[in-house]
Amino acid sequence: MKRKRYILLYKSYLVGFFFIFISTLIIFNLFYIQNYNYSEGYKKSVIKKTIRTNLIKAKRGNIYASDNSILAMSVIRYEIHIDFRSISEKLFQENIYSLCNSLELLFKKPKFFFYKKFQYEKKKGNRYFLLAKNLDYPHFKILRNFPIFNKGQIRGGFIVEKKICRIHTLENIGKRTLGYDDHRGKAGLEGAFSKYLKGKDGKRLEQRISFKIWKPLKSGNEINPENGKDVYSTIDIYLQDIAYHALLQELSISQADHGCVILMDVKSGEIPAMINLEKTKKKTYEDLRNFSVWEGSEPGSTFKTMAILAALEDKKIDVDMIVNTKGGVMKLKGEEIRDSHYNGNIEMNPKQILELSSNVGIAKIIYENYKENPEKFIEHFRKWKLDRKIGIDIPGESMPFIPKPGKKNWSSITLPWMTFGYNIKLTPLQILTFYNAIANHGKMIKPLLIREIKYHGKSIKKYTKPIIMNPSIARKSSLIKIQNMLEGVVKNGTAKKYYNPEYPYAGKTGTTQLNYWMKGKPLSYNSSFVGYFPAKNPKYSCIVVISKPEKGYYGIEVAVPVFDKIAKSIYPRIERKILFKKKENKENLLNQIIESKNFFIDKWIMPNVVSIPGKEIIPILENRGFHIQYEGIGKVLTQSIQPGTKLKKNQIIFLKLEE
User: Fold this and answer.
1) Bridge-partner residues for 79, per DSSP?
2) Mean pLDDT of all residues in 162-184
3) Is 505 strand, coil or helix?
4) Of all helices (H) and strands (E), which one includes residue 255?
5) Residue 55: beta bridge partners?
6) pTM of the full predicted structure?
7) 187, 235, 524, 539: which could form a disulfide with 548 (CB 3.0–4.6 Å)?
8) What is the rounded CA–CA span in Å between residue 536 and residue 483?
9) Structural contact between residues 543 and 526, judged by C-beta atoms closer than 8 angstroms
10) Binning pLDDT at 50, 70 and 90, where does residue 402 land?
11) How many CB atoms lie within 10 A of CB 425?
């Protein structure tokens, strides 16, 4: 009995000691937490989970066309989630049918789809159900007034998240020229001028008040964002549209792999249109790569113009000299040179050689005059800066290639083969820049894609002064001769099928074999035409390059039709007299446009709303059934849809307002 009593007493002492030890340990830890570094770490951990420094994204600047229409802009898009636990059972059951009816009309899905889904999510207690994403403001405005949702987040479970999206108003027309600056890298105008467009992000402290909701804290250390600057480009929407549809039509007919068109203002160097289209796996054509700037290839017969101009400058030839073309076939250094367009003429002058694109004729002229000193011939291309990049505004330009005598890439046949555009590489833009110099009476101008940078309407930087790359590529007499030859190509030569005295233009056809060195494989071709119009006092230069057509391959068959459509579409604009109207009194303008019954001659035709106060015109446009998105306050500064454009039902119109 005594032994059992001792055992029980021992156990009770042991239990008591254990409780005393645990209590002491807890008291020690509490003391340590309150008085030593662990307290600081714990406090920091708590603060980190409840307080954060959040970036306030700056609004990216807009990109404008030459007429101040918006090409690219940042807009707010809305993502909508539903917290079903916040919605009372009574509110849910009384309004679920009317909510689903409303959603059916907005999203064009059966109401039973929403009813079944919502019943399931409500039963599950989903607190973050995704209903819609990428909603524009007009649709968001409608959605937030639906039954249940009109009770807000706390009672109606309507959770709204905003995000900024970049919108290109022209969609596929010139998409790569506008480019991007995101996870894919930098391309086009967006990438080249990102330092102006992106602005500077701000910062602020925020406190967590629920799982996904943070409230701004006023700490005095906030940094407000600085919105990006606006970029005003040389792109002309009207000309861009003409070039796009002309190229797309021909690519579809010829079933080509890809193609590009560049239009350039002869005097200023401005590029009003740059189109690139590539065939997709779905057999459609999209603007995926900028071939105009990036793709260097052998130019083919368009290089003959450069070769003849070099010989004219060195006085090696004159327009009256006769060249024996040997029946369109010549053997040189064991290789055969053959004319593709031989018409039976054995003797030709240089003008006829260029007009009929004789490979034999141009090879004989250059080889016989420069075989002892090929460096003298090559020196012209260095003088014309054809051996270096132009330095166009947008990234991705390829380095041209001109072979040099004495180097590994030079052989006994390099010189004659160069004369008709092989063994060298140039991009379409580099070729066009040279031809533009011919049209500009010898003055070589750097191509420009930007006119101005503005911030809040004030000019920051201007690019309006032409950048002269070479004040004169040749003597006046040589230029007159080469201009006459290029006119002859269209009047009498390879492009005479499209000659029209009412729409005269000058230029040169080109056809290049792409894989001639790969024996046993079918050949593919590049077809091109580069020139300018009108033939006298030209306004625009233009190049068309179409790669790997499956139906037809000569420049006259594939490329000239595109150039011809573009030139004939633009000719009326060149000849039309532009009338400038005086600015009217502000009050009269407002009364005339707002109160006049003729403001909308046709409901579906976009009026000119520039200079009209936004508060006056936005309700009118919305009442007509259009969705209006705008930024700023005051009068309309720019509109995304040009006046006179045919509008569609539920058309989205972007307006920029300014005081």
Assistant:
1) 161
2) 85
3) coil
4) none
5) 203
6) 0.76
7) 524
8) 9
9) no
10) very high
11) 17
